[in-house]
User: Fold Histidinol dehydrogenase from Geosporobacter ferrireducens.
Amino acid sequence: MLRIISVNKDNYKIHLKELLKQRVEENIADIDETVERVILDIRKYGDKALLDYTYTFDKVVLNKVKVEEKEIQEAWDAVSKEFKDIIDAAKNNIWSYHEKQFQNSWIDYNEDIILGQKVTPIESIGMYVPGGKAAYPSTVLMNAIPAKIAGVQRLVMVTPPGKDGKVNPYILSAAKAVGVDEIYKAGGAQSIAALAYGTETIVPVNKIVGPGNIYVARAKKKVYGVVDIDMIAGPSEICILADETANPAFAAADLLSQAEHDEMASSILLTLSDGFAEKVKAAVNQQMVSLDRAQIAEQAIRNNSAIFIVEDMATAIEMVNDIAPEHLEIMTDNPFEMLPKIKNAGAIFLGHFSPEPLGDYFAGPNHTLPTSGTAKFSSPLGVEDFIKKSSVIYYSKAALGKVKNQIESFALHEGLDAHANSIKVRFLP
Amino acid sequence: MLRIISVNKDNYKIHLKELLKQRVEENIADIDETVERVILDIRKYGDKALLDYTYTFDKVVLNKVKVEEKEIQEAWDAVSKEFKDIIDAAKNNIWSYHEKQFQNSWIDYNEDIILGQKVTPIESIGMYVPGGKAAYPSTVLMNAIPAKIAGVQRLVMVTPPGKDGKVNPYILSAAKAVGVDEIYKAGGAQSIAALAYGTETIVPVNKIVGPGNIYVARAKKKVYGVVDIDMIAGPSEICILADETANPAFAAADLLSQAEHDEMASSILLTLSDGFAEKVKAAVNQQMVSLDRAQIAEQAIRNNSAIFIVEDMATAIEMVNDIAPEHLEIMTDNPFEMLPKIKNAGAIFLGHFSPEPLGDYFAGPNHTLPTSGTAKFSSPLGVEDFIKKSSVIYYSKAALGKVKNQIESFALHEGLDAHANSIKVRFLP
Assistant:
């Protein structure tokens, strides 16, 4: 079921393109039409439309969207101490990693010139947390903690309710643990529209973060500009680069951990060894049968996954940079020496005991990572996504006087005499 | 012509909303339709469509889009030494400011755990430079220099040709001065599509930056996701906060320097003093008549500009943060003491001798700034726009062993047993 394909530097691009073609979204006109209608309705009818769409899409009748303190406390009480301790340990690791991303304002003095960069937190953030089968408390931690470190004042969570009209208690507990300020029961494009434009209940936010299905992704793209967004997330991916020092069972387990996410997930192994490839394939088949989500994993493995036997290591590294995988595992003899050559990857897991789930929950780096090749230009979610900067400029009269002729001349070369005049007027006799 | 409006903390929001309503783009369905057709044609017909659209929109017949070395050299030779020296001085200041934004990779060692963040330049960047009346060599400097500092390998410039089929020599000279790698004669949505998807001549890039008209802005939004973009730029804005220590002629000149950009530009003055407001209004009327672009400035001043007489300084500062202006000038007795209170602004100019044109060309900070209130969530263009990050994670067997139970339990709480298995398989007897 898991394809094995032999490639060299001349033909790998064709094979990769064929395998990864599902990463290119093309037929989304219908989805976009629905998303646009939903957004217009939320802007026009506010809370009423939000409740109506929750009934239409989530099959739940609600009479209000706000999650009250009482419901949060009930969830907290219902969750085991063991789970709360794990949340706490994960939170500490995530906090400690992200704290290192904090950026200070800076200022630079040069005679009578002062230049600087002022860092300010974004005031309000909306955080989308999926519900249903993909209801992950880790999503709450990974989105909320960098926002808190940045100093965001108002952190709003939206998440679709379950069939019983309630929010998953693990999600509510994680939200309580990290100090989310407001929680609303709303999902899909309607919740994104509510965050961007506001309703009677929900005050609009400045930026929306968090993963979601295709409707959420398209709605985020649609409202981008009115608010900022973190990224447009696609299906999850792993790429493993392994030599014969790797354990085939480890590689197989890691390919499957990605594949169980959804049918569109992609798991790719790059190796130089025929024998290793065959062993991993056998281990995947053997491990898959006992998984709870074997059906999902099986489809992802069959349709979007492959083992590539690559001619040489240089080509394998070229392939990694071409794939620009969300998760990259390097299971080779000395994985650190590969690091300088890796240009495009969301997160890089080094060695035989750094599997991808370690990063999903616990190690500290963010699990919201660029997918579908966007690691060529995007970064993991981090503190910098929750701040913005302002330039600061001060010149004294003497300092401006020294450069006034140059600025006036530049302005006139651009045909802007009012710009030149703004300098000139300051030195009129 | 320049309105004077008295406001207090209870009614300023209504007045601001009325004034700034042109910042909200609504009726763009026709433009989006054109942009989508152009993008599809470029993807289908490549260079041929690019040349056809250059004829349709720019009224120029070209037989190829690439600007050859010879044309660049001719432009360089045609430009005065004086202008080249100014470019050089501006370049030095811009380089020196942006160098301070450079971010290093970091790594953190903790017993047998290694965590880090690897910084890599984005490999290829497309830079849009407007042509025609808004052909500004400063745009080239402001976009190219942070890319160069980041370490971008391939910096591609597109710019629409003039009626003579040539590119403005100041733009070409600025491009030569900063080391742009490839230059193409193409503008509008067609050039954005070519950068995102490629043609026979133009290899696609990873990210597109630079300002442009509404077609360029909408095309950038459309291709966002396939490539990254810097921001969606709107009309230019200035907000001046001035007390009676300010010179009315300076304030008027600065309001006009913004207004001459285009009819949609917005110039706003906030002051507590009736008398100062009247003096600025009179100075605007007096200075406007002698400007080359008086007609444009007059429209911007009449339609999108105002002087607000504000009840107290606290309200004035609230208004600044609500406007989130692209450019903010603080011309008060002690402008530095205002800085902690300013949350939302692209660039902050302090004091009586730091007019906005100083930042446009010369001081060093970037002139590509968030417009239309997006300073609430966006930053000036900078080196960080040309890099991306990868998380780096290494755990030894012993380190993973210590936390394996917690990770497995977390995974099972999320219903993902293949994730748990990826840990478990590493510790099988």
